[in-house]
From TrEMBL:
GO molecular function ontology, one term from the record: ATP hydrolysis activity
Entry-linked CDD domains: ABC_PhnC_transporter
Keyword field: ATP-binding, Cell membrane, Membrane, Nucleotide-binding, Translocase, Transport
Domain spans labelled ABC transporter: 10-253
Pfam families xref list: ABC_tran
SMART domains reported in the protein's UniProt record: AAA
Taxonomy, superkingdom: Bacteria
Name of the molecule in the record: Phosphonate transport system ATP-binding protein
Record organism: Giesbergeria anulus
InterPro entries attached to this UniProt entry: AAA+_ATPase, ABC_transporter-like_ATP-bd, ABC_transporter-like_CS, ABC_transpr_PhnC, MetN_ABC_transporter-like, P-loop_NTPase
Amino acid sequence: MKTAIRESHLSLRGITVTYADGHTALAPTSLEVQHGGFLVLLGASGAGKSTLLRSINGLVSPTDGEVSVADLPGGTVSKRNLLEHRRHCGMVFQQHHLIGRQSVLANVLMGKLATRGSLASLWPWSKADKLEALAAIDRVGLLEKALARADTLSGGQQQRIGIARALVQKPRLLLADEPVASLDPATAQSVLTLLHDICKKDRLTAIVSLHQVNLARMFADRIVGLRQGQVVFDGTAAQLTEEAQSALYAKSSPANMGSQFDSPSQSKEFLPC
Ligand SMILES: Nc1ncnc2c1ncn2[C@@H]1O[C@H](COP(=O)(O)OP(=O)(O)OP(=O)(O)O)[C@@H](O)[C@H]1O
């Protein structure tokens, strides 16, 4: 087990999530995630992709199991080191979670609160902080928009700013929950290309949930397929045959999961990690 933790960036062992209403969204799930990999989570709506991502950064407390991170003091994520874990864990959301009436720069600086604590927002940002935020905005190609209101940007531009906000945190692990779900196909591909290129250049470990199988095939080093809370596929894009893809999105429920999974995914409130 120790060897696996040393070689992996992230180890999930028997992570299980049953929500307060009795829904088991994630059956016991174990995964070893290697350093610097670009792992894509696929699965139909309600399969448990967001639940898995949120279990990793502690936005959801697993009912059972543990998450271990190679470079985290203590190794296993617990209440004691959760904040430290989140400092190194950037998150990109489907709906950006930008504050529309604030400037792009102010939104990106929010990413620094993960490393400084929320009280930092009570004091003016230092010049060094602003320069770092501007550098992150430049990396996503939107420096000329730094002083524009966030709500004047297009959806694709807003998602680029969401990426810049995660980057300013200097994460080691980047989690992205359907980051391109609300974009048109061409914009989705260009935003995902940007995210992929940055992760590779900075050697970030990335776990990205997607609905677009074609994009997963294009960018993933590894695809993990979830179906009704269980891992039913784990392999490369080449190994995801048409048959495996059909099985991943098949409608019928596994016998042991019951009808609790028939309801559509509910909307959820996310918080930055
Ligand atoms: N807070 C919650 N309370 C109860 N059930 C929940 C909660 N959040 C999610 N669920 C349920 O858990 C299951 C998995 O949801 P989850 O959002 O993880 O799936 P998903 O694969 O990310 O779906 P989507 O692609 O639609 O976002 C679904 O049945 C969903 O309704």
